[in-house]
Specification:
354 residues; 22% strand; three-stranded antiparallel sheet; Nucleotidyltransferase, domain 5; Ribosomal Protein S8, Chain: A, domain 1; 3'-5'_exonuclease_dom; 2 domains; seven-stranded mixed sheet; alpha/beta
Length: 354
């Protein structure tokens, strides 16, 4: 099936040339077509058949209804330098998504995405896809802030709208995102309707058309050490909510520490993902009143601590970071989950249940 000429179009920012001294807000745009894909034959061969001889970097995102393991993935967006593809999972179904699986799991195709956790979870539980080789721009932003001596408070993650507005990366306002958010609150099934409206096409394309430009900006700023952190944390965030029985043995391995960092004596500490089970009725103690307990733990440990929340899984805590900091967070969290406490009553200790 040949791709029909597209009736949709958008503008993508042109990545700066290496060594380009243009100002942060000097962004040039180029028009590209938007293709709505319902069959794998409408996708580029280099995407469907990953090869070490033609490695790709693409912008990537997913849209759906309550996007997580239990929700519904409706659209998957791919941004190439010369075109944007909106993969219609609703109409293309399992067969179309199965055709995309080798690319999404390939180490030869870099997927640039902002906050990969729930997208990865949806892909894994709905289609058996283990998302691999991502560059998460939310993680990249935090690493560059750390490089430049700025610290962030726990849970202070940059939003995609905020990242776009930053003149160091794009300097573009994204007012239409708010319009779509209002529509999603009014009708959570917004992304399920077919045919896709002009607003749906435009909103889906907007979420990926800037990603390659941002990627190039970030790559120019990140040190070799930060690039390793970016790769490792991206891999750990991808598998964060994708809990299985074999402890991720069937996932791609975590990127090892590069030899050049070892030779330079600049060896970073290994980073891991730990998943803690929370006994029934104890999550409230972990979180604390108005989140005070979990916030104090986050402030005392240099690790990311995530809770499944309403989207689930509701009975687990996920910890990502350097081994020592993860173990420290584990110890504190287990202490909060103890079912028994000791109180002093006269000269003797008395154990009571709480």
């Amino acid at each position: 099936m040949a791709s029909a000429p597209s009736s949709h179009q958008t503008d993508v920012p042109i990545p700066p040339d290496p060594g380009d001294k243009c100002e942060d807000n000097d962004v040039r745009f180029s028009p590209v077509p938007i293709h709505i894909v319902t069959h794998s034959s409408q996708l580029p061969v280099e995407f469907l058949e990953p090869s070490p001889d033609r490695q790709l970097v693409i912008g990537f995102d997913c849209e759906g209804v309550d996007l997580c393991r239990y929700g519904t993935l409706c659209i998957m967006q791919l941004a190439f330098p010369d075109a944007i593809y909106l993969i219609d999972a609703t109409q293309g179904g399992e067969m179309l998504m199965k055709a995309c699986k080798p690319a999404l799991e390939s180490s030869y195709i870099t997927k640039v995405i902002h906050d990969c956790k729930r997208d990865s979870e949806a892909l894994y539980f709905q289609f058996g896809i283990k998302l691999n080789n991502v560059v998460d721009t939310q993680i990249g932003y935090s690493l560059i802030e750390e490089q430049e001596g700025r610290t962030r408070a726990p849970d202070d993650y940059i939003s995609f709208v905020g990242l776009l507005a930053d003149p160091r990366y794009c300097g573009v306002s994204y007012l239409e995102k708010q319009e779509v958010r209002v529509l999603l609150r009014q009708d959570p099934e917004f992304w399920m309707y077919r045919p896709l409206s002009e607003l749906m096409v435009r909103a889906a394309a907007d979420d990926v058309r800037f990603l390659l430009y941002i990627y190039n900006r970030m790559m120019a700023k990140l040190t070799q050490r930060s690039l390793w952190h970016l790769a490792v944390r991206g891999a750990l965030y991808c598998r964060c909510f994708c809990i299985n029985d074999d402890e991720y043995a069937d996932w791609s391995p975590i990127p090892p520490i590069p030899d050049n960092l070892i030779l330079e004596g600049n060896v970073p500490e290994e980073e891991i993902l730990s998943v803690l089970d929370v006994p029934p009725g104890k999550m409230g103690r972990v979180i604390g009143k108005r989140g005070a307990s979990i916030m104090s733990i986050k402030e005392s440990c240099n690790a990311e601590i995530l809770i499944g929340g309403a989207k689930g899984p509701p009975d687990k805590v996920f910890i990502i970071g350097p081994v020592k900091q993860v173990r420290k967070a584990e110890a504190i969290l287990r202490g909060r989950m103890l079912e028994m406490v000791t109180v002093r009553s006269g000269p003797d200790r008395k154990i009571i249940s709480i």
